[in-house]
Amino acid sequence: GLFVTDYFTRTPRKLSPFRSFASIELFHFHIPEDTVIAVWNLITFKEQGGTFGDQCPDRSITVYFRSGAPSVINPLHTHFPRDTAVPGSFALTLTWTLPNRTTGVFNVTSPLPGDWFLAAHLPKDEGKISVKGLYEECQYLFQPQLIVQRLVNIAVLYPGHVTEQSMAPHNRSCLYKVFVPSYTSRVLVEVLRCRGAEGCPLWLRVRAKAPPLHNSTTLDCWEHTPCQLAQDLPFWQHWYYVLVEKHPGVLGTVSFQVTVQLTDCSRPSLARPPFLPSSASMNMPHSFGSAGGLALGDSPPPTSPNDSKHPVPIPVTLHTGERCWPVRPTLRNELDTFSVHFYIFFGPNVSVPPDRPAVFVINLLPVLDSGGVLNLELRLNVSSLCGENVTVFGCLNHGVPLTSGDNTSVTCETESLAGFLLSVNATASLSRLRIPYPQTGSWYLSLRSLCATEHGFEPCTNVTAEVYLRAYLSPCINDCGIYGQCKLLRTNNYLYAACECKAGWNGWGCTDNAEAFSYGFQLLSTLLLCLSNVMFVPPVAIAVRSHYLLEAAVYIFTMFFSTFYHACDQPGIVVFCIMEYDVLQFCDFLGSLMSVWVTVIAMARLQPIVKQASVLYLLGAMLLSMALQMDRHGLWNLLGPSLFALGIMAVAWTARTIRRRHCYPPTWKRWAFYLCPGALIAAAAVLLYAFVETEENYFYIHSIWHLLIAGSVGFLLPPRAKPSRRLGPLPRRKGCGYQLCVNEQEELGLVDPAVASINSICTS
Q: Which of 188, 129, 131 is closest to 319 using CA atoms?
């Protein structure tokens, strides 16, 4: 055949440590039909500060693969909610081969066509809270690339039509495909008139949706005569691929005929006719290729003895129980994103007769519906059982309904089909099923009623069970409960939802309480974070006593909004919000930075130098508001204003020191008992905030931060400025001159006016 190679790539993305599915990076690919091999090239590299991160530690990267929907992963081994089905996926761990780069390869032979999803994440970290911009963070970037090789012009088999093939010595196999429409209960593939070497040295393999693999359904034509391979309950509206392969060691030419017979379960006594007048009657796609094949809607070519394709009578062997029952559709009602209800006509109460199953179909739209949770609920009306020991079994299968001919069977699985089993009876009248990230397409629910006896389950007689059926699509399981938040996430044009848990709760639906915070612990952490702000009361009292009324107002503002911000910021149920969270956060950050600003400006004592020192207070408030609106968690939002204010203070103190030719403040008591302790306390608070705080110790480390910052303000706030007392002019000598008076009390910066007398030094 002719191979075509396609190449797909995605933009590199920064990976995050795993906390929940909301922290993973999801990549969406689409694999075309007739693909024989798909190769993912997984490129990972480190960056630090815009350059290669050679000094970054090696952290393993886990990548998950799944066809049809995103992977349902559980790297922390938490418990899933009850009645939750967990679909499987492939997983691959990448290790580092170079200091700043590594590459992994993941091959899939004959992959299923359609949507494929890759999920990648880093291992869970210790939860350290780092200040943004304090140091260059190590970034791990992940970029997947996909290379697919697909066959073109695969020969198409038509039901009831014989195709002749001659396999040359250099050819090892021949590949065909046949489309299976709805209401098909059986696919029968047969190899006829095999000629060449002794016997029929051929393998016959059949697989749905993609070319066969070595472990697909296989039949050795050498050992079986006739060479017939049957597939019961095939997937509806899909291609089936037929591979005829030579045995190893066969060198000569082998010729054979291959034919396919489809059984229509809506008419079990009849097989599908060999030719159909149009594509609509066969539910086949309007466009599919085959070298020399028939075009749908065309009449079959006239046959001749030399023609390679001609109809021959094929015996049809039907099995009992191949009859399919009518499939009742459901009405789709979209309420919101991933909020869809499926209503049953003349429902929601469903009657399940004793002699036949009730079959329903739920259609999930491609791509759009795979990012939510499919929920199914069965509730039995016990009063409808008339005292009989009736059990209603439900089988939910993807692609085809499971209607077994064995009326006493309670399984939802076959050799090629796996489903989900639900059951309700008089004892357990309610059954639920949740499927996170379901595969899109048609889901079929088959309901049957059986009566329990001493010998097992048997068909019931004259008892019609009534079941309340509810099917709906939701973003998350139970909206993540009270300890989680359901987040709507997006990767490129694909939407999906995931839970983000809090207060130590984990799991897909935030239902795993193995590490959950107790109510007492939540109450204690909230009280610590809130009541630690009471430490601002002493600085407020000192500011009022020293006539720093503006500073006192800022401290009160900070204390108020910090208290209620932390009361609203709690992860558990001990939460109290008086305003919107964003408003409280902004006011808390603004109050904290303004407290630093006004304290340092007050320490500078600019009033004698700058007549309108209040301009600096107003300027600081405006600049800090602008900076917080740009980035509230940036490092320079804290350091920038603080360093600027400290620079102003240093200039003012230096000017006084030079003018007086004496260190300012001049007394060692001021340095030893106020400035040095206050500076040390503030430095300790900054170190705790920047390097010690983690998610686990946040509630008490941040409370200590509140205490230290408020305590440092009480030490650093300067004493009350005494008004200057200018004395009257002293008698001057004759002649012209001038008089300069200096208030030494103001220059010394003393608290107690009794320490030094007020002297005016006047020179003429």
A: 188
